[in-house]
Amino acid sequence: MNHHDTENHTEAALHDFKAGLGLFSKKMPLIAEKYNEFTEECFKEGVLSKKEKQLIALGISVFSQDEYCIVYHVKGCMDEGAAEDEILEAVSVAAAFGGGAAVSQAVTLVQESINDLKDSLH
């Protein structure tokens, strides 16, 4: 049985991303290590909170139509305590810059990910 048969789209995307990152890390350990160090530093609590940084990252992901990052950062927002209305407001700002393409991500993948993650928390 394929893992996609038992998982929702969001869980499957997160699984695929982690598996791909693990494989890349084995093949390119120094690059993966440096990239991970850099991103960990960028997402640390600072003048901006971790939640604010996740909301920014989600907006950028929506604008760039990066589906894996959209799912990953919806989860990041929720993990940092962002409410659904905060997430939707952040992606609305991205849509103001990205137009219809960004709106399509906001009204489909972002909302699907929120619902999938809500379901998995219950």
TrEMBL record:
This protein's source sits in the domain of life called: Bacteria
Report the protein name in the record. Alkylhydroperoxidase
Which GO terms of the molecular function aspect are on file? Answer: peroxiredoxin activity
Tell me which NCBIfam families the record gives. Answer: ahpD_dom
What SUPFAM superfamilies would the database entry show? AhpD-like
The alphabetical list of record keywords is: Oxidoreductase, Peroxidase
Tell me any Pfam family this protein matches. CMD
Give every Carboxymuconolactone decarboxylase-like domain span.
29-112
